[in-house]
Task: structure prediction
Amino acid sequence: MSLNKFFLLLQRNKLIVIVILLIPLCNYQVSYLNNGKKKEFKYKIFKSVIDSLIKRGGDSISVLSLVNDYRTYFNERFAKVNIVSQPKLDFTNSFDKKDLKKIENFINTNEVTLAKAEQIFKVPKEIVAILLWVESRFGNVLGKNHLPSVFLSMATATNPNVLMNIEQIEIKNGISKDSAYKILYQRAKMKENFALNELLALIEIQKRGLMDIYQLYGSYSGAFGIPQFLPSSYLNYGFDGNGDGKVDLFNLEDAIFSVGNFLSKNGWKEGDTNSYYQALFRYNRSKTYVEAVLKAYNDLKRKDER
Result:
């Protein structure tokens, strides 16, 4: 190609050349924001979290890696939504005929895996199927919240700057603002403690190489996978159902076996209805949740007996 043709081509494609030349600059700017000002802000907002995690036994390298990673961030919404009083969910009418039919179809489709889990853990296949339906619609509703960031943000709950921006709980029955604030602070302290424990579980998951926690997404309250386990529940009750040497709660077989393992280790005993309630309450601390699950179970059993 002659020199004249080259400059003519350059002239015609000037815009493309400019864009190509600007790409490194854009990347540098993004990198600077992530590792410069943004990093400084993250350290300030998460300083108390860092100190608390190290005091609780988290090694400093892992803790700082968690906070400094470019994928973690602070979002006040994660703190607010978990602290401000929420209306208690009523699960009384959670299962209509269509839902029960879908659960039946799921049981029929996954009969072999459910039967194996039932044989090992002595937990009825119907119960496992019901929980997977109510928690994530068999994996169709998993949540899109970045889990490490959920717990990091939640762990700042008692930070005065964060707490000041969280709307006050409703003042009812003549409760003063000071009393309402104390209630809010107590709730924030409880959620902060909860989040710190789950962050330690996430750090442990990462250290063991069980999964990449930075690619983990779930609910705004920090549950993930088809059975919607917390990180600590994953460590304590996660079960390799398909025998591939790892526990993946986004895998259906592992999810089924993990739910059976959870209920078994939390006291489920065949023929003991009190143990059913206690084990399910450990899964979700809601009376109406437990009652709805047991009602759906009885409805399915009666249908099988016809």
Remarks:
- DSSP finds 15 helices and two strands in the chain.
